[in-house]
């Protein structure tokens, strides 16, 4: 059994496995530019974030109906349960679906159907985080926030993803302020390919509570001091960083150094269907490549629950306490 953990950086569209993509394509009459799953898998060689995003947005063409989103989420939750996930905070990209005429209601209703029975079926509590695409305009992000208003009971927070360099957080200051007024929690991708200034902006201009990736934070000691002092969690995704060539090989990943520096690190899978592993596979990989020992892995698992958006309500406090007790009681043997 895998160590109990929360997954806090997971794009639901990035869990679309080739087999499901072809099944949905057949069901929805969508033609894919690949002969079969094998040929599709061969296309999973990326030069950087953008070459990945091109394929990722393209393959979303198969997602059309509520049932498609429900099936996608249910398949992820089943796999996540096998990987020891007990709590999942799941990103979705509504603008990428709106571009094909798939509206917010279809996406949220479909996902929510799977999430609503997740505790019972998979033993996983869940939250949904709606991401804005940073390579689209601030106006489009604001329209997306407005379109989400009827569904806010199902949405815990907002995030910011897609092509980072050239699309700094400052573009979205007003949108995040509006999201905060609606009671939404705030995260943003920053420091994945972008330099530390992108992380500073996410903190200072957007007021994020967690930084997604934050990989390049170590380049700026002042930023590290700030992240440590404010206990800002980072949702690192080591396998993603290798596949998108932010780093050359896993052995060079700064995770161990970041933990040594006192940063509140978590480990996550990002887009596991594309990057060669789900979250416990990632735990194993960092154990092997970086020599993180069992207590370091336990620390990562503990951090994942501490960094989650389980809140101060009695029900959430009880869940967090239960999960943390499971982490402490876990035996690696
Ligand atoms: N969308 C899906 N995965 C992403 C990533 N790793 N970075 C930015 N946007 C994304
Ligand atoms: Zn991501």
What this model shows, in words?
By secondary structure, the chain is α/β, with parallel strands linked by helices. It is built from 17 helices and 8 strands. The protein has helices at 18-28, 37-42, 49-59, 66-82, 94-98, 104-116, 118-122, 138-147, 173-181, 196-204, 221-229, 238-243, 255-260, 272-275, 279-290, 294-306, 314-329, and strands spanning 5-11, 85-92, 125-133, 157-161, 185-190, 210-213, 233-236, 264-267. Helix 4 (66-82) packs parallel to helix 6 (104-116) and helix 16 (294-306) packs antiparallel against helix 17 (314-329). It is globular, with a radius of gyration of 19 Å. It starts with a strand and ends with a helix. Zinc ion binds at residues 9, 11, 161, 189, 212, 270.
Query: How helix-rich are the residues, as a percent range?
Result: 40-55%
Provide the number of structural domains.
1
Largest sheet, spatial ordering of strands: 1-2-3-4-5-6-7-8
- According to DSSP, the number of beta strands is 8
| CATH homologous superfamily title | Metal-dependent hydrolases
Classified by CATH, the class is: Alpha Beta
Mean pLDDT: 98
Q: N- to C-terminal separation?
A: 9 Å
- Overall 3D shape: globular
CATH topology: TIM Barrel
Q: Indicate the proportion of strand residues.
A: 5-15%
